[in-house]
Amino acid sequence: MALLAEYRCKATPARRVVEVYDADAYLSDDDAMAAARIQVVAGNGYHLYLRSLQPDIDVEVTIRVWDDPPTPPADAEGQVPVSIESETGILVVNQLEYGPADEITLPRPGVYEGHAWWQNRQAAADYYDTTLDQFTNDSPEDQLTEAWDNCPVTERYVLDLAYTREPEPVDDDDP
What we know:
Elements lengths: L2 E9 L5 E6 L7 H10 L1 E3 L3 E5 L7 E8 L11 E9 L3 E6 L3 E7 L4 E10 L1 H14 L8 H7 L6 E10 L10
Parallel strand pairs: 5-10
Antiparallel strand pairs: 1-5, 2-4, 2-7, 3-4, 6-9, 7-8, 9-10
């Protein structure tokens, strides 16, 4: 099990979602986004949706490419199998309301399979709810921003992937 590449970025889960997709896969998928509400991470082959329990505290997204993905750690809160096809070899980590957080260049274009796992999802949500409960109309305007910046835990989503095959050929004759 050799680690071939690792990418990390922070993203704000606007509307409680962070999206990962191939740079040419612009269309969203409402069914996959709805599935993420249940599975936490869900996709349609070209998009992955990571579903947070809070919309304002930055989460860490890590994408690791392996020759063979390792088993998720025992302290992961959950895990699901994932697959994503990247015709361009570039994945975008997108914040729904704020735009791209980062672009990641994969070792090569193709289909990558593995699993997603996450940590501190519930702890970040609990901190978020507790902080909002303490906020009053008299609180300074920057108090919430400062609270989000100083969250004591990092909500983390990890995609452990391995290259499995070439991307599907594009049919330029499709309407």
